[in-house]
Amino acid sequence: MMNTGCLDRGNTAAALPAAAQRRRRRQRLWRLLPAVVLALSLALPALAIDLRSAARQAAAQYHGKVISAETVVKNGRKIHVIRVLTEDGKVKTVRIPADD
Predict the structure, then answer these.
(1) Bridge-partner residues for 69, per DSSP?
(2) C-alpha R_g of the chain
(3) How many other β-carbons are positioned within 10 Å of the β-carbon of residue 58?
(4) If DSSP codes are grouped into helix, strand and coil, which group holds residue 83?
(5) Residue 78 pairs with which residues in a beta bridge?
(6) How many CB atoms lie within 10 A of CB 21?
(7) Regarding predicted confidence, which is higher, 21 or 4?
(8) Three-state SS for 50?
(9) Which of helix, strand or coil describes residue 38?
(10) CB 57: neighbour CB atoms within 10 A?
(11) Domain spans of the chain?
(12) Which residues have CB under 8 Å from 44's CB, separation 6+?
């Protein structure tokens, strides 16, 4: 029987130098990238927030009462603008992306 040493086909990772192993891992990640981008693009609409939820979030964040809430378009993007009256009497303006 012939000694094949590091050319053993059953354990190719051990036979490759570290640089080649890193290159192979990088190539695998690049092959997965289109699938990841597609999955994220399909999930983004689910991340959109409506005005009512944005107002609740702002009120909870500043421990206050919502005094106005509207959705505006700025530079082609929808943004919820919520004004909150805090417990100490200050008015905070909170902007939350409404991207859909």
Answers:
(1) 82
(2) 26
(3) 22
(4) strand
(5) 73
(6) 14
(7) 21
(8) coil
(9) helix
(10) 15
(11) 12-46, 49-97
(12) 99
Which residue is listed with tokens 């190539």? 27
- Tokens linked to 36: 């990841």
What's the token pair of residue 50?
């409506």
Residues forming beta bridges with residue 23, ordered by sequence position: none
Which residue, chain included where needed, has tokens 């004004």? 83
pTM comes to 0.53
Contact 96, 51 (CB under 8 A): no
Task: Give tens-digit pLDDT for 26-66.
Answer: 888 777 777 777 676 665 555 578 899 999 999 999 999 99
Distance (Å, whole) CA 60 – CA 26: 43
Q: What's the token pair of residue 19?
A: 């640089």
Length of the chain: 100
